[in-house]
């Protein structure tokens, strides 16, 4: 490399993150528990690619030379626009429609994977994140929606969050009926009203009332413009928020049917409850909507106690598959935000985000004897023990042990010339050594004690290491 060659600065793009072995192992264990619940309910896995044709995604149609509003897009050799998926539901709709003739109906599946949003990143807001979805396509009744809610509750229990969550349920048709009764017709005003309802838990009925009218000023003086409803219009919405549903509404009947199923299956209101403030992306849903809310308190960036909030949700989306087929295709499902849920489990001590155990490391005390060390490594690997030979350039014993320690190795195997002549090996238990180190302060005493180190016969390598690992 010449002096003029400019080095590239290693930079992670904004809105993306690297993951350590500990985080990968912890999230993997969490996903295994979620899978077990899904499969107990009879759902099967399916995998779709990261890229879809942009028009297939539906929400972001190509209306510019480069369709990049919200999605990451590229053009292939056929001049077709493709985009990275922004969720796991739109690809499922495409998959079901494309394989309609061969798939069972209803079709019950789950999917996990990364999704991508071409949006401005911020605290806790990423441009790549992991989702875990389950969906039933082809079942029109509220029974399928109720099953989704019960499965969400069972997932939370399986993750050790019993008593710390509630699945909240509402229905798009109920909300549509309230808006109609209040005389709200414009799409913009509807959205503002629904956003106001969504703030019930945060601001209370008085705060919602302000947001339905002229607007609300918060403690900092920031003003949020309201929906501009008259007092009589706002009263209709507030009655609903207060627990008075619209009469003769199909959504109310569906919620009642779901409640009877929850009752029959033993899911009380401490786990699943009907809640009129649940809104969730209503441009997407056509019937029941639900979300998992974690109810324990955490501190926000201002040091204030706040409820952790939603870690996933979903609902009925009967119109999505019908974009690909003439006949109506009912569908319902939910999505778990894996990264956010992992953060919640970390806060409650249920994530188990400890660094995974590293490999046993066979030290290289003499380069000329590398073949002997390789033989030891092979014996241990064939016995199912995770093992590696030190491949660094240093001959220094202390530096090799320091490497093993950094790898979170449970033990190192040592064979110098003296051990080789005697047909023995030294095994250094790094776990016991760390524990003993806390009680030994004198360096000379440390060297003399050699805590955690013991001698074995060469032929006993596998059995001795197995015994050590079981004891650890």
UniProtKB/TrEMBL annotation:
Domain Aminoacyl-transfer RNA synthetases class-II family profile: residue ranges: 39-356
Pfam families with a match to the protein in the record: HGTP_anticodon, tRNA-synt_His
InterPro entries: aa-tRNA-synth_II, aa-tRNA-synth_II/BPL/LPL, Anticodon-bd, Anticodon-bd_dom_sf, His-tRNA-ligase, HisRS-like_core, HisRS/HisZ, HisRS_anticodon
Any GO CC annotation of this UniProt entry: cytoplasm
This protein's UniProt keywords: Aminoacyl-tRNA synthetase, ATP-binding, Cytoplasm, Ligase, Nucleotide-binding, Protein biosynthesis
Coarse class of the protein's main subcellular location: cytoplasm
UniProt KW Cytoplasm keyword: yes
An MF annotation (GO) of this entry: histidine-tRNA ligase activity
Enzyme Commission no: 6.1.1.21
Residues that span the membrane, as ranges: none
Keyword Glycoprotein: no
Residue numbers binding L-histidine: 87-89, 117, 131, 135, 280, 284-285
Catalytic activity: tRNA(His) + L-histidine + ATP = L-histidyl-tRNA(His) + AMP + diphosphate + H(+)
Protein's cellular compartments: Cytoplasm
Gene3D superfamilies reported in the protein's UniProt record: Anticodon-binding domain (3.40.50.800), Bira Bifunctional Protein, Domain 2 (3.30.930.10)
GO biological processes: histidyl-tRNA aminoacylation
HAMAP family: His_tRNA_synth (MF_00127)
Family: Belongs to the class-II aminoacyl-tRNA synthetase family.
Quaternary organization: Homodimer.
Protein name (database record): Histidine--tRNA ligase
Organism field: Devosia subaequoris
